[in-house]
Amino acid sequence: MKYKQLGDTGLYVSELTLGTMTFDQENGMFAQMIGATGQDLATKMVNLSLDAGINIFDTANIYSNGQSEIMLGKALGNKRKDVLIATKVYSTLGTSANALGTSRLAIMREVEASLERLGTDYIDLYQVHNYDITTPLEETMRALDDLVTQGKVRYIGLSNFNAWQIAKADGIARRLNTERFCSVQAYYSLVGRELERGIIPASMDLGLGTLIWSPLAGGFLTGKFTREGEASARRKNFDFPPIDKERGFDIVDKLQDIANSKNASVPQIALAWLRHKPGVTSVIIGARKEEQLVDNLKSVAIELSDDEMKQLDELSALKPEYPNWMPPSKRGENLMTRFSDL
User: Fold this and answer.
1) Distance CA 115, CA 54 (A)
2) What mean pLDDT is reported for the chain?
3) Strands (E), the chain
4) What are phi and psi of 28, to 5 degrees?
């Protein structure tokens, strides 16, 4: 396992993160849709991850209505001091007028609830799970800054923001002299490369680390989905995130070819591709079964050649959107020459 600096901080995180969305009681409310490990398997997965060198675990207040945080806290036990816990705030299952969002009221309420469920007195990385269109960012940033000052939170991050929202939040934090976000958690996979248009460039420019969620596109890149049929997998019950499946099948075929040449699995190649991409700090892996986790952990040993990366890049490339299809200008270049190739 390798470790990378998280943005411009002095914090180092493993190149794989264990995601705990599947941590739930076996009869839990999301068990049928996402899957559920039960406490014994959750504890075993945490220990397997620790043995493999993972030092960061990702959860959220909303996952399994809080059960994920509870089970992660129990699984870590006295090992908690040796690891990093990342959790999130924004969504709740409450229905009151002030239940949702990142107002000062919501943040102060939810951090206390998460601390209690996790069985800890501090959160290493507290992430805003979504952009709150109803709360001024100034209010959110000041509340998060207070949590850092109080010692309840060590670092703050964001998730699922647009590039302009990331830049706006960073600018406000600099203007107010509050704690800045140090990381971005975003969806990225071989069948979902949209964040390359703005989020990755913004993160790299502002010095933010990235944590990648759903690197296997909700199970699509496990090799269980082919043109011939879809085997039992999470995506059969929870078809998310949205993808172009026909194009995706071509990518899965190429992944299988490369996997065969390396005596590896399709998921291992898909995860290795992400590890090789610029701007990626840590890739979040999650599993419903022990064998899935063991297979994913082995991806850190996979190295892809420049040619293999090129094949996968070209097959999955995004079609440029404006203004990215505008040709760059050069000093001394005639305007008509610049557009002659369009």
Assistant:
1) 21
2) 94
3) 3-5, 12-14, 16-19, 56-58, 84-89, 123-128, 153-159, 183-187, 209-213, 225-226, 229-230, 282-285
4) -70, 170
**Of 77 and 230, more confident:** 77
- In angstroms, the CA 16 to CA 43 distance is 18
Q: Kindly give the residue spans of alpha helices, DSSP state H, lying in 26-124.
A: 31-34, 38-52, 67-76, 104-118
Peptide bond into 278 cis (omega under 30): no
CB atoms within 10 A of CB 254: 18
The tens digit of pLDDT for each residue in 83-92 reads 999 999 999 8
**Is position 63 annotated as part of the catalytic site?**
yes
Exactly one of 3, 12, 63, 122 is catalytic; name it: 63
Q: Which amino acid makes up residue 141?
A: M
Taking residues 53-60, what's their average pLDDT? Answer: 98
Q: How far apart are CA 41 and CA 47, in angstroms?
A: 10
Q: Which residues pair with 213 in a beta bridge?
A: 187
Six-digit token pair at 105? Answer: 């009221």
Asked whether the predicted pLDDT for residue 329 surpasses 90, the reply is: no
Tokens of 295: 């297979």
CA angle 225, 227, 229 (to 5 degrees): 60
Other CB atoms within a 10 A radius of the CB of residue 35 amount to 23
Domain ranges across the chain:
3-325
What span, in angstroms and rounded, lies between the C-alpha atoms of 296 and 286? 9
Two tokens, residue 264: 């590896």
User: Among all chains, which residue has been given the structure tokens 């026909």?
Assistant: 246
Fold (topology level) of 3-325: TIM Barrel (3.20.20)
Both tokens of 43, joined, read: 């504890």
